[in-house]
Known about the structure:
Distance between the termini: 26 Å
Shape: globular
Strand content: under 5%
Low-confidence stretches: none
Helix content: over 70%
Mean pLDDT: 86
Structural class: mainly alpha
Radius of gyration: 17 Å
Order of helices and strands: HHHHHHHHH
Number of domains: 1
Amino acid sequence: MTYVSDVVALTRKxxxxxxxxxxxLPAMLLFVLSTLVVFHFALxxxxxxxxxxxxxxxxxxxxxxxxxxxxxxxxxxxxxxxxLVLAPCDRSAIWLGxxxxxxxxxxxxxxxxxxxxxxxxxxxxxxxxxxxLLADVGxxxxxxxLAAMAAAGRARELLLPLLVLPLxxxxxxxxxxxxxSDDGGRFLLFLLLxxxxxxxxxxxxxxxxxxx
Length: 212
């Protein structure tokens, strides 16, 4: 099998597991919608666009954390991770397959969440949507690696946010900046560079993380 076919097979495996179990995606959908509804009724009328976009990113980041906290649970609970490590494929393909599956879940949640945000708070232009997509890629790329590290510990639900949130701050800054700045393209370039650097680092280091 080629590298691409390995990645496709691993991604399909995660998607099929979720379609059968329905553990991750419904929880992400319920969480992000509930968060936006609470913000809508808790904030005073006339809340500025900058504050509204900041709230959107609070919802996105914590929704992503919810998905990442469940990302490696099936493998850890059923001993599948050892089999994946021993499989005759590049171990970085495991990370890439998990990243793509997690990204698919996050995008599916946002298909519902973003229209709700537009309805409750403020419109989203093409630059803001591009910022959301680029930040999603960064969160899933970094988060899949850190979730694999946290899955080996007993307190993964506590450890994962401590690992992911500091690295997610630049993504939030870039995402909000792309929506509210007059020069949103500069923030998109920043997000693109951030994604590229950390995706390469995660891809290259995953083999060492997974074998520890």
